[in-house]
């Protein structure tokens, strides 16, 4: 069975690329995805009006939809709220910061929130992986048998070579290793505003980390865009689509051999 995932990220409502965001709604419907994944930074500064615009845009996308917050989805300028309840507005307008896993025929997808409102380091925009939350996701994936296994987080769990920004996820490498050992196929992320794909792990216990670009005006060396993912029992293809100003066109494509990725890591059902 062929599965399709539309992977959108970093819309940054407040600084969105309005034409690209609008075009993405139509293009994603035409893609007929099994699942839509939105990997955070849905707003620019976590303001109420930005969340309201994001909520209205998300409501126009196909379902099911799995969304996880990014560091920009905490209230940038309301320091008290950012420290005390960083995801209060995300919950109010979008949904839980740790939503339930999505299970559809052939696929299971879980979110792992790597964003933080405050941290014991100067750059609070960097990521962190909570071990208990990660363990819950690993447990779901380890029981998922031959399903396509997808994890969504905002920050790439592992630093991406050549990236213009760091993700700095505390505990990220260890979590990525556990996810790979649990047979996860795809670890989807945003944050970089540039699409990428890279393998991670060891022979027999590897996953692919795939980042979508941005649908905002904050581009970093790649056009505004999103990723269209297609998977069957044998292969996964990831196509980064770039906005030309009037339509989306393929920007770059990666193709993985799914069997080689999951063969030894898949648990017995
Ligand atoms: Fe972003």
Please name the defining characteristics of this protein.
6-stranded mixed sheet; alpha/beta; 24% helix; 7 helices; disordered C terminus; Purple Acid Phosphatase, chain A, domain 2
Please give a structural write-up.
This protein has 269 residues and is α/β, with parallel strands linked by helices. It has a single domain (3-262), classed as Metallo-dependent phosphatases (Purple Acid Phosphatase, chain A, domain 2, 4-Layer Sandwich), CATH 3.60.21. Helix content is 24%, strand content 26%. The strands form 2 sheets. It has a 6-stranded mixed β-sheet. It has a 6-stranded mixed β-sheet with strand order 4-5-6-7-9-8, with helices on one face. Strand 2 (35-38), helix 2 (48-58) and strand 3 (65-67) form a beta-alpha-beta unit. Helix 5 (131-142) packs parallel to helix 6 (172-181). The longest helix has 14 residues, at 18-31. The model is unreliable at 261-269 (pLDDT under 50). Bound molecules: fe (ii) ion (FE2). Residues 10, 12, 41, 70, 72, 191, 193 line the site of fe (ii) ion.
What is the secondary structure topology, with strand pairs?
Blueprint: E1 3-8, H1 18-31, E2 35-38, H2 48-58, E3 65-67, H3 79-84, H4 88-93, E4 102-104, E5 107-111, H5 131-142, E6 148-152, H6 172-181, E7 186-189, E8 196-202, E9 205-211, E10 225-231, E11 235-243, E12 248-257, H7 258-262
Parallel strand pairs: 1-2, 2-3, 5-6, 6-7, 7-9
Antiparallel strand pairs: 1-10, 4-5, 8-9, 10-11, 11-12
The structure holds fe (ii) ion.
Fe (ii) ion (FE2) binds at residues 10, 12, 41, 70, 72, 191, 193.
Main β-sheet description: 6 strands, mixed
- Percentage of residues in helical conformation: 10-25%
Instruction: Describe the strand arrangement of the main beta sheet, using strand numbers.
Output: 3-2-1-10-11-12
Assign the CATH class. Answer: Alpha Beta
Nearest-angstrom radius of gyration?
A: 17 Å
The run of helices and strands is EHEHEHHEEHEHEEEEEEH
């Amino acid at each position: 069975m062929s599965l399709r995932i539309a992977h959108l990220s970093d819309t940054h409502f407040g600084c969105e690329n309005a034409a690209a965001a609008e075009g993405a709604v139509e293009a994603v419907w035409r893609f007929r995805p099994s699942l839509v994944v939105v990997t955070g930074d849905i707003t620019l500064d976590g303001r109420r009006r930005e969340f309201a615009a994001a909520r209205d845009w998300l409501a126009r996308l196909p379902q099911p939809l799995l969304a996880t917050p990014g560091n920009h989805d905490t209230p940038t300028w309301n320091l008290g709220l950012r420290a005390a309840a960083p995801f209060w507005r995300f919950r109010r307008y979008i949904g839980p910061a740790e939503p339930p896993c999505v299970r559809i025929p052939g696929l299971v997808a879980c979110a792992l929130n790597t964003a933080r409102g405050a941290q014991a380091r100067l750059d609070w925009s960097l990521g962190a992986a909570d071990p208990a939350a990660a363990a819950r996701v690993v447990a779901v994936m380890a029981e998922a048998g031959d399903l396509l296994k997808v994890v969504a987080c905002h920050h790439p769990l592992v630093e991406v070579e050549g990236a213009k920004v760091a993700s700095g996820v505390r505990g990220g490498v260890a979590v990525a290793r556990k996810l790979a050992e649990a047979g996860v196929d795809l670890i989807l992320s945003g944050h970089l505003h540039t699409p990428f794909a890279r393998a991670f792990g060891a022979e027999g216990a590897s996953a692919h980390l795939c980042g979508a670009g941005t649908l905002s005006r904050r581009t970093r060396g790649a056009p505004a865009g999103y990723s269209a993912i297609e998977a069957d029992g044998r292969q996964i293809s990831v196509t980064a689509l770039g906005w030309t100003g009037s339509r989306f066109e393929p920007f770059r494509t990666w193709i993985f051999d799914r069997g080689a990725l999951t063969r030894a890591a898949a648990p017995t059902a």
